[in-house]
Amino acid sequence: MDAVVVHYFQSIIGRFPFVDGLAVFFASYMPYLFVVVFLALPYTRGTFGTGSPLLRKQRRLYFVLMTVLALLIAWGIALHVIRYGYPRVRPFSEFGWTPLVAHKTSPSLPSGHATFMFTLAAAMWQLKRKWGYWFFGLAAVTGIARVYSLVHYPTDILAGALIGIATVYLVKRITRFS
């Protein structure tokens, strides 16, 4: 199934320049915008409820520390352990294609971008559900763009998403992250 999807995308690349441009934007630049918005949203008014300014700062610090812990586990450990144990070749390398975005020929499973973005999305979901919907949506579109750009298979994105979400859930269970 993975090969069918990437072969289809490879067959339509170049036919729709606007779609190709959107894919490049989401695959290459959206993760940076994602991080900037993620870092800014906790500082908006009312994010951490009511209470003294010190209590809100403590809640914000706790949120940031738990998110960093989840990122360290998901992106810093799990991703590399899986890639070491299963060094899957990227679609553009396997089939001899030119990807839409410049990329090294490092292992593709799981997607580092998907792991990172879905970890942040799941953390944001814990903070504010409304924002979580947007973050999950943008993470999914970025994952699709990475598949369209021929740097990942769909299962690479799915694996990264599952790792990110599961890690935030694990950190929440262990630390009472809220």
CATH class: Mainly Alpha
Structural class: mainly alpha
Residue share in helices?
over 70%
Under the CATH scheme, the architecture is: Up-down Bundle
Shape: elongated
Unreliably modeled segments: none
Overall pLDDT score: 89
Gyration radius from CA atoms, angstroms: 18 Å
Q: Domains counted in the coordinates: how many?
A: 1
The CATH homologous superfamily is called Phosphatidic acid phosphatase type 2/haloperoxidase
- What is the CA-CA span between the terminal residues? 37 Å
- Main beta sheet: none
CATH topology: Vanadium-containing Chloroperoxidase, domain 1
Instruction: Work out the helix count.
Output: 7
Summarize the model shown.
By secondary structure, the protein is mostly helical.
Throw out a few tags for this protein.
mainly alpha; Vanadium-containing Chloroperoxidase, domain 1; elongated
Q: What does this protein look like?
A:
The chain has 178 residues and is mainly α. The chain has one domain: Phosphatidic acid phosphatase type 2/haloperoxidase (Vanadium-containing Chloroperoxidase, domain 1, Up-down Bundle), CATH 1.20.144.10. 74% of the residues lie in helices and 0% in strands. It is built from seven helices and no strands. It has helices at residues 2-12, 17-40, 53-85, 91-95, 112-127, 129-148, 154-175. Helix 3 runs antiparallel to helix 5 (112-127), helix 3 packs across helix 7 (154-175) and helix 5 runs antiparallel to helix 6 (129-148). The longest helix has 33 residues, at 53-85. The termini are far apart. The model has no long low-confidence stretch (mean pLDDT 89).
